[in-house]
Amino acid sequence: MTTATAPSIAEEDRLRADLYNFLGVILSGPPDEMLLAQTAGLTGDDSALGQAITTLAKLAKVTKPQAAESEYNKLFIGLGRGELLPYASYYLTGFLNEKPLALLRQDMAKLGLERADTVFEPEDNIASLMEMMGAIIAGRFRDPADLGAQKDFFARHIGPWAGHFFADLEGARNSVFYAPVGRIGQVFMSVETEAFRLG
């Protein structure tokens, strides 16, 4: 029996991957009691990102799973459709299942990534893209990607639209618990964009 060891990556990259993964989880479905409790335990600092994390943690302490589910449904599901359509194709072309999704599927195949059998949404939804980026950085499915590969994936599939989506999420009519998630996403996307520009 062999023991698998996690790939060794820099602490900064591990923290980046963790934040991408957290955003992926919190956006993939309504948070249950355990995720709300974990979120309530987060601590931030005085930075813009840290302040948004502190706000989210405070909200998580007083949010019940039923309220979070109701908000999630209004934002992303709704009757017919939710307030927001969290897909790259929609943000970049105004339609679902367009060229950005086809390009993403090509790049996923090159990276050895594929949609889970239990997931039925198009792969270009924000939650999936956040999880993919986290996996690429951390090397969850193969060796951790170098900075160039990370930059390429971000520039092709996340950078052109995710900041706009997160701004819409923060300002959405039905956003309460998810408003600071939108703020976290905006600040993080801005930091990543600048880091890749300088890197």
TrEMBL record:
This is Chaperone TorD involved in molybdoenzyme TorA maturation. It comes from Marinovum algicola. The keyword Chaperone applies. InterPro entries: DMSO/NO3_reduct_chaperone (IPR020945), TorD-like_sf (IPR036411), TorD/DmsD_chaperones (IPR050289). Keywords: Chaperone. SUPFAM superfamilies: TorD-like (SSF89155). The keyword Chaperone applies.
